[in-house]
Write a structure and sequence with these properties.
By secondary structure, this protein is α/β, with parallel strands linked by helices. It has helices at residues 21-36, 51-62, 68-92, 124-131, 161-173, 206-214, 222-231, 284-294, 323-337, 364-374, 398-408, 416-422; strands at residues 8-13, 40-45, 97-100, 107-109, 118-121, 135-139, 142-145, 154-156, 177-182, 203-204, 235-239, 247-249, 263-267, 271-279, 302-304, 311-318, 341-345, 348-354, 381-385, 388-394. A hairpin with an 8-residue loop joins strand 7 (142-145) and strand 8. Bound molecules: adenosine-5'-diphosphate (ADP), aspartic acid (ASP) and magnesium ion.
Length: 427
């Protein structure tokens, strides 16, 4: 195996970290310092500020059904802007740098527009540029479909996909460090924007972080955590605005000793669909969920109510952004099966408690429901897994629900297991 002449660091800067020219220059100064310390650097950037949302808005102003291929080419340009500008900022500081698009960095995907998964990385060009002494800036959130040279297409990795670009590159290059710079100091017990008492964690295990991300904690993309776990990449999440210790996402050796809720997650990208008075007979669930699956709509929680007079209501959640598609798919299904109708609610949200110790300790569900009841929050749907309990509630009550749960599970208090581990050893 070729030995790395100098330690390699992968750093990712999110949208708020590169939101304007001044911030890009500040990131460039930070990179220059890291470079001066003797490290090789691969830097992944997101699009500037709200660029991705603005590009989506522009497309929506042109058509309500944009061609997925064109949309992905459009969205990928957001990251091209920030990568090129950061490279220029480094040149201005006398630091050798080059920006590469995802395809130029050798990132190939499974080709699914808008939600592609990285299929492989062939970082020949990245290595060559590093060897030439350059800082390599890679446009995050994108890769090219693995098809032939003639029909390869730009595909994007889903919202938050630059996190995944960074972790995948760190794994593929065997980097010694993978740092994700963002607008908070690390991973907290809940979104610090909604819960003032949220406490920063020093370490969080892959499993718990994965669950938090899956349940909506946007600070890390789900796939990034998965890739970190599979490839044993330790990910450090930290602030790009202040020099402060971040949070390490890695194997948590204390996970077995914890027997508590580790954090809360919430998700507003949820809508509830209810099919009214659906005939209660075999094959109905397939008739409903088959076409949704064929249309690529992700269905999450499903509740079938007790039937009356041969009919039953079925409720389920879908991502809010997929609600229109779900309705289009379901309208003919409802008519065909003779159901009474379909109602939707886009003002719901999910709150989850997450902890690896939940499955072997009783009482968490009761405590969660009790805390929500005391806060006057009505629970519309419930689902559980080994490591979480999730409730669908009214979106307007999200902040009070999260704060109530944070207090009820005493998340502001440090875990005694950590305090124990931090004690200096005797002798
Ligand atoms: P970036 O643009 O750097 O990728 P994101 O907006 O994607 O940043 O993610 C950072 C945001 O994630 C924070 O501003 C915070 O509001 C939110 N967030 C949600 N849950 C958490 C959590 N448990 N810990 C830290 N941040 C969280
Ligand atoms: N720019 C993309 C987004 O806003 C990717 C990212 O920021 O990670 O989702
Ligand atoms: Mg992000």
């Amino acid at each position: 195996m070729p030995t790395q002449p100098v330690p390699l660091v992968v750093q990712k800067f999110g949208g708020s970290s590169v939101a304007d020219a001044d911030r890009i220059k500040r990131v460039a100064r930070r990179i220059a310092r890291e470079r001066a310390a003797g490290n090789d650097l691969v830097v992944v950037v997101s699009a500037m500020g709200d660029t991705t949302d603005e590009l989506l808005g522009l497309a929506a102003a042109i058509t309500d059904d944009p061609d997925p291929r064109e949309l992905d080419v459009l969205l990928a340009t957001g990251e091209h802007q920030s990568a090129t500008l950061l490279s220029m900022a480094l040149h201005g500081l006398g630091v050798g740098a080059i920006s590469l698009t995802g395809p130029q960095a050798g990132i190939t995907t499974d080709g699914r527009y808008g939600r592609a998964r990285i299929a492989g990385i062939e970082p020949r060009r990245v290595r060559a540029e590093l060897e030439a002494g350059k800082v390599v800036i890679v446009a995050g959130f994108q890769g090219q479909s693995a098809d032939g040279v003639d029909d390869a297409e730009i595909t994007t990795l889903g919202r938050g996909g630059s996190d995944t670009t960074a972790v995948a590159l760190a794994a593929s290059l065997g980097a010694g460090r993978c740092q994700v710079f963002t607008d908070v100091k690390g991973i907290y017990t809940a979104d610090p924007r909604l819960v003032v008492a949220a406490r920063q964690l020093a370490v969080i295990g892959y499993e718990e972080m994965l669950e938090l991300a899956q349940q909506g904690a946007q600070v890390m993309q789900v796939r990034a955590v998965e890739l970190g776990w599979i490839n044993d990449v330790e990910i450090e999440v930290l602030s790009s605005f202040e020099d402060a210790p971040g949070t390490l996402i890695r194997e948590d050796p204390l996970v077995e000793q914890r027997n508590k809720v580790r954090g809360l997650a919430h998700d507003r990208n949820v809508a509830k669909v209810t099919l009214l008075a659906v005939p209660d007979r075999p094959g109905i669930a397939r008739a409903v969920f088959g076409p949704l699956a064929d249309a690529g709509v992700i269905v999450d929680m499903i509740v079938q109510n007790v039937g009356h007079d041969g009919a039953t209501d079925i409720s389920f959640t879908v991502p809010r952004v997929e609600l229109a598609r779900a309705e289009r798919v379901l309208q003919p299904v409802v008519e065909e099966m003779g159901a009474r109708g379909l109602t939707t609610d886009r003002t719901v949200a999910k709150v989850s408690i997450v902890g690896a110790g939940l499955h072997n300790a009783p009482g968490y569900a009761a405590r969660m429901f009790g805390a929500l009841a005391d806060a006057g929050v009505n629970i519309e749907m419930i689902s559980t897994s080994e490591v979480r309990i999730t409730c669908v509630i009214e979106e307007g009550q999200l902040a009070s629900a999260l704060n109530a749960l944070h207090g009820a599970f005493e998340l502001e208090k440090p875990d005694p297991v950590d305090a124990q581990a931090a004690l200096p050893r005797a002798g």
